[in-house]
Amino acid sequence: MLTKTTFSLLALAATLLLPACTAQESFQNAENCAKVEAGMSQEQVRRIMGAPTGSDAAADSSKTWSYLFGSATDTQPIRIQFGADGKVASVACAPQASGSERPTGN
Description:
Blueprint: H1 4-33, H2 42-49, E1 54-57, E2 63-70, E3 75-82, E4 88-92
Antiparallel strand pairs: 1-2, 2-3, 3-4
C-alpha cells in the first residue's frame, strides 16, 4: 500500500516527466509534418506521422487528421486533410512547426 508521501512523490515525478514527453512528441510531429506531401495515401502518412490525435470525417468523404504541436500550455494542431480519394489534399503544419527547433514553454 502506498503511503501519502510516496503517492505525493510519484504524482510529482509524473508531473515533471509529462511536459518532457509532450515537447519530444511535438518536435517529432513538426519534423515529420514537413515530410508529408500532397497525393500521399493515408497509410503513407500513418507510417510517417503515426496514429493521429484526432480524426474528423466530412459528408463529402474527405477526412482530416490532426496531431498535437506545442507546449503543455499552448498547443496548436497539425492538420492533414485527405480528399474523397483517400489521398493527402493539404497539409497545415503549425506556423512554427518547421522541425528546426524544439518547442519551449513546457
